[in-house]
């Protein structure tokens, strides 16, 4: 894809995620079910945090494209490295996890993750923007441009650390309020919850590996050439 086309795509994606994030964080206060938006507000939900993550990623991607267009290659190299790390470790695996886990649990029993009371608060389009559209955007990003993945150990350590931070945030909210972020968690014993978190980590790691596989399958030779050129500058 041409750099100018890529820049336009990344700009539009950034605007989209900014708009969706703004929409979910500016729901009218009187429309919010009190049992849903307690301590931590929207910022306790992985879905909302993922929207912010995607907005940041596409903002960084757009900046990298602009720097390449104006031939600021030294600066572009640094920004591209940050873009690729952000995409490989967080943007792709988290988006995939959010979409697949949400719709799997929603199909099984929606009350475990998205109570029916939210239907009158969050429009249908916004629900799909948060939980559905994120997946094709992530796949389209892999198809649009190659990404240089970090060493496997580094990537998994970073992903595991971020996962640990979110689980710690969820547990902290429970310790303060006595309420779980997602009703699903109330079904588990402490050992069962630990097993669930461990299983979720295994799933998100598999999505990391799947993203790396897709990236290499589509762009294998291009990634090697791009890395060689960057090191040669």
SS-derived structural category: mainly alpha
Report strand %. under 5%
What's the main sheet like?
Answer: none
Q: Helix count? A: 7
Please, what is the average pLDDT? 89
String of helices and strands: HHHHHHH
Using only CA atoms, what is the Rg?
19 Å
Q: What proportion of the residues is helical, as a percent range? A: over 70%
Q: What separation lies between the terminal Cα atoms?
A: 22 Å
Q: Which spans have pLDDT < 50 for at least 5 consecutive residues?
A: 224-233
Number-wise, the strands total: 0
Give me the secondary-structure topology.
Elements: H1 3-25, H2 46-69, H3 73-109, H4 124-131, H5 134-144, H6 152-177, H7 190-232
Describe this structure in words.
There is one protein chain. By secondary structure, this protein is mostly helical. It contains seven helices and no strands. The chain has helices at residues 3-25, 46-69, 73-109, 124-131, 134-144, 152-177, 190-232.
Write a short abstract of this structure.
With 233 residues, the chain is an all-alpha fold.
Features:
disordered C terminus, 233 residues, mainly alpha
